[in-house]
Input
Amino acid sequence: MTGSLGANTKEQLQGIADAVAVAIGGQSQCITGVALLCEVAKHFGYDLRPRAVSMAGASKVTGASVVTGSIAQKFLREHGGAAEVFDCVGAPPDGSEFERAGHLVAMLEWPTMLIDPTFQQFMAAGLPNATPVVEIAPGEGEILLEDDRFQAVYLFDDENRGWQADFEKVRAVSREVGLDIANHLKAGNAPHTHDVRL
Output
């Protein structure tokens, strides 16, 4: 599949995700980040969908771990993760259903890709300064990302509810800045050179 600028899908989505990551600036604002990503991507012909996940990550350099949500906490304990978690980030412990997942990513249906525009929020735990855009097999329940510096697993929580109305509100107010970022990229500018900051 080729996007509207002629770049292959993964390369184009990587540029879009990198531009959104710059706007988010490493904040733990996954709903805002995914809403903005969906808005920018639509201007390139991509229909991205939000998906609730719980994420457990560990730095192979520092040994620190980070989790979002109770699903990832349980996963980490069951799989011999670090006894001490550096940080539990994501949805606040407010008793909501979203607290179970704690994180939101975007998905492209075909080819199936997971995109995390707010991964930089985990840098304090030693995870890399990255914006994952990963092609995955359809129907997978968990996705492992790994290199010599870190390991992270995304655990899908498709039954998670309660965040959708907030997502749609944020997406509606993201339309103007989404168009600004899309126009910046369509003009041939690098993803990190726009001036949108949220």
Observations:
- DSSP finds six helices and eight strands in the chain.
- Confidence is low (pLDDT under 50) at residues 1-6.
- The two ends are 31 Å apart (CA to CA).
